[in-house]
Design a protein that fits this description.
Layout lengths: L1 H15 L4 H20 L11 H13 L4 H20 L26 H8 L9 H14 L3 H5 L6 E2 L4 E5 L5 E5 L2 H14 L23 H14 L8 H14 L4 H8 L4 H4 L1 H17 L7
Antiparallel strand pairs: 1-2, 2-3
Amino acid sequence: MWESYKNGYKAYLQLEKSLSENSVDAYLRDMDKLTLYLSENNLPSSPAALDLKTLESFIQYIAEQGLAATSQARVISGIKGFYKYLLSENVVDADPTTLLELPKLKRSLPDVLSFDEIEKLIAQIDLSQPDGHRNKAILETLYSCGLRVSEAVNLKISCLYFDDGFIRVIGKGDKERLVPIGDEAVKYIGIYMEERKKNKIAKGFEDIVFLNRFGKSLSRVMVFLIIKNLAQQAQITKHISPHTFRHSFATHLIEGGANLRAVQQMLGHESITTTEIYTHLDRHFLRSTLQKYHPAFRGE
């Protein structure tokens, strides 16, 4: 029974919600957790038979198993989406998830690099190495455009519009956006592209900008390792990942007075509430500046 519902829900997530394969797989794994819980506790397994109390007991169970609040929130979101799908298909006539509450999430502020720290980190790249200009080009692009690492490793040559100063980015849910690109990123992509011509390119990867030594797309893990090694060389002790460049891009824009809607568009955030975290970062920056330079704030 559940398997047929899951197949329909999968199609719903892919076609109507335009979610990525990773997101779809995560939601379906969460549904497997629910069905396993129902089976192990001899609870009614029909979606129409589930009530709020049963769902709340399931959420309490996964919380007791040590599942993080963010993961609990995703599970609840998936269950809510599942019942929304069932209602649309007239499988159920009531939604027991209406009063199912999300756990309170701690909105932590990510580590951000200053411009000087970014310059220091990028300066560690050895341009005499075969992958030197590629690494410099990809880091300049991450910071210049605020890309997700998945967007950077999948960036296509056909999506580069350097004459207009833009690149076309394919983001979450295959949604496209145009993002301005800085002169330094353009410069080093150009240098790298000349070197790239000398290397063998695997079939099917001719249009991908950043390639590994086998002529295929770089993995996200490889970009993480590149940045981690450079941070160690630069003696930067902050928790750094490719996403740090995206956070830094947005924070520096907000600190410089950029319009929040413009930042939202460049980051590809569906909701502006996601972008608003950078206004919190900006307030943190302002307070730390006052504490450093204003006599009335010293000693706080």
